[in-house]
Amino acid sequence: MKRSHAISIRTCRELEGPLCDYIATEYEKPVFLTGPVLPESTKEVLDEKWANWLNGFEPGTVVFCAFGSQVVLEKNQFQEVVLRFELTGLPFFIALKPPFGATIVEEALPEGFEDRVRGRGIVYGSWVQQPSILSHPSVGCFVNHCGFGSMWESLMSSCQIVLVPHLADQILNARLLAEELKVAVEVERDENSTWLSKESLCRAIKSVIDKDSEVGCMVKENHAKWKQILASPNFMEDYIEKFIQDLQEL
């Protein structure tokens, strides 16, 4: 970046203004913001089998979990995740790639798991229509890895947000949402490893989905505020126009 005339970042000042100012000062050059690429309201019809299953639950009660296309868990991590979802007692839809050493997710499920959660839990190992699932009235919580796409999709949804970051940029995104904006809860890590502590996933989910939870009320209120800002008319378009203008004036 030393030989460049300016720095371009795909973000918006509303969310990361102080960080952008710091970068501009540190590198002594202007920072141009393109604005975020926000998901549009989906008009895609959800697959009938998923729609029918979700329709069987009360509004806002289903927990949806997805860690993106790049994250592959170890088998013990995969089993820990699904067992913690079982422990919540809530209906859940988990969309994760098969863990290392397994060709399909069914091979890696704990013994007896499918029978115990039959009727209230799904673990699926292929691509799903994430925006359509998030917009379904029965889905009330989104557990995700805070990758760039999922971060914006979660912010533009009406779901409570629980974060399980894996890679460097995901960790920074999670800190932004959980600590700065306070629109989400990040799952605590085990002190002796980089993975989740024993009860932390279950505890995080319940903290945002329980109606009487102080944390849940706080993140819901903050989330609604930021969603309104991001969904304001011409939000993306104004950033793009300003970015083009900045380049022309450089």
UniProtKB/TrEMBL annotation:
It comes from Cinchona calisaya. GO terms for molecular function: glycosyltransferase activity. SUPFAM superfamilies: UDP-Glycosyltransferase/glycogen phosphorylase. Gene3D superfamilies: Glycogen Phosphorylase B (3.40.50.2000). The keyword Electron transport does not apply. Keywords: Transferase. InterPro entries: UDP-glycosyltransf_plant (IPR050481), UDP_glucos_trans (IPR002213). This is Uncharacterized protein. Belongs to the UDP-glycosyltransferase family. It holds the Pfam family UDPGT.
